[in-house]
């Protein structure tokens, strides 16, 4: 009980901020949806691990499911049947996560989607939501957001024309030139993050809010290619004082391309020694039925941590894993 009693005021602010989030989405015309936490077929993101759960039915037959890492698949199925503006605010789970700092195996995420929109709408949403929340807690010095194209960020910090490094081989050579020792079989994403995490992200700590957009097409994840910036995808990530708080896309709506990417992710998971899962065919079908849409997932605990000036995510959680296990 010591942890809880010491954090009572922070937790009161947490609960008020979560209530305010729901208020903002309601006023903005979003419908709150609830989706299954327990799945048969989890997501296939190469660097995420789903938490397995074994359970039994009334006939004592055993099943294996997985706690979701995101409500994304289910929410896109809702978009495919005609929902337009939806959000989900609840718990998600990640296996093989650290305890404390900026991570917890169980955390709160708000994820939202807009039909007939693109990732610029998401950037507006993040700025407006954060402004609303800061007003609710009477924060006088509000976070100022700057929108930065990935190409401009690499020009500023690495001094290169990033257009020349959108393929694996040039990025491999760049890593070597900058003193890294990458393996020959590392993916483009691995090579990108060698430089980004060591030479760029630490320098964002004093930059306030950064909305980083247009990721390399090789790192498109579930986003669609940019129609105007060849070699880039309409993917956006949001940082506040160097801490990543959100990741979103102008969503891919090509079922054939979605299947190709999922197959590629399966292959990457094999390379990383992770479990692989069958492709969720309903999800692939839903992607092909969706209207042009945009969606983003925001880490609620991290945002609250930043807004309240807490150094450790444990400080804003009721009972973090470090206290439970």
TrEMBL record:
Ranges for domain Aminoacyl-transfer RNA synthetases class-II family profile: 17-320
Pfam families: tRNA-synt_2 (PF00152)
A GO biological process held by the record: lysyl-tRNA aminoacylation
Annotated GO CC locations: cytosol
One function term, GO molecular function aspect: tRNA binding
Membrane-crossing segments per the record: none
InterPro entries for this protein: Aa-tRNA-synt_II (IPR004364), aa-tRNA-synth_II (IPR006195), aa-tRNA-synth_II/BPL/LPL (IPR045864), EpmA (IPR004525)
Keyword Lyase attributed: no
Keywords: ATP-binding, Ligase, Nucleotide-binding
Keyword Nucleotide-binding assigned: yes
Highest taxon above the source species: Bacteria
Record PANTHER family: ELONGATION FACTOR P--(R)-BETA-LYSINE LIGASE (PTHR42918:SF6), LYSYL-TRNA SYNTHETASE (PTHR42918)
Record protein name field: EF-P lysine aminoacylase GenX
Organism per entry: Candidatus Magasanikbacteria bacterium RIFCSPLOWO2_01_FULL_40_15
Organism placement in taxonomy: Bacteria, Candidatus Magasanikiibacteriota
